[in-house]
Write a structure and sequence with these properties.
This protein has about 210 residues and is α+β, with helices and mostly antiparallel strands. The protein folds into three domains: about 80 residues, DNA Methylphosphotriester Repair Domain (3-Layer(aba) Sandwich), CATH 3.40.10; about 45 residues; about 60 residues, Homeodomain-like (Arc Repressor Mutant, subunit A, Orthogonal Bundle). The chain is built from eleven helices and four strands; from the N terminus they run αααβββαβααααααα. It starts with a helix and ends with a helix. The structure holds zinc ion (ZN).
Amino acid sequence: MSKCAMTQLCTYEGMFMMTKEQLQAILMKDKTYDGKFYCGARTTRTVCLPSCAAKNCKMENIIIFDTLQDALKAGYHPCLRCRPDHLEWQGSHKELVSRTKALINTTYKEKFSINDLSGKLFVNGSYLARTFKKETGETLLSYFNSVRCEKAASLLARKDLSISFISSETGFCSASHFTKVFKDHYHCTPNEYRKRSNTGKLKKQTL
Ligand SMILES: [Zn+2]
């Protein structure tokens, strides 16, 4: 490739990736294209919806992303005016649910907050709550608590760990809150659960 062609390719990188249809959508600030693709401004490192009125940069500085995730991965920040991060999730609902579950599985020790979860997943909070309930039949809080209880149940098998230690280790604010939530989930207190699982072990050994 000649030096001239290289320069041209670099300067118009965004243009090369933009179709005529996308260019038209940006020029017309066409709302029907919002969510179908995203515009990154290379000068400010912000990412916008095609219709964003705040977007005021030269066409050659605009780079097109297919998804918001791609833009975020590339280091772009969601524009505070058009809020591309508040647009409903463009992927499948199942994908959002599995990403939510994976996130909860690693953050269950933190305080439960729909805002924190939705912020980390780059979606609107009420949309996330609604989609999760629709897909799984349970609320985000219920799933969050069930993850905590399952982690606690596995720790209860270890007799050397106290209830209050297990409670704080699984993110509960107090042992009484832990007992209440655990009872809702397993229909017995953590102590009863521990006794039962120990009895179960004894029975198995005698068989
Ligand atoms: Zn914008």
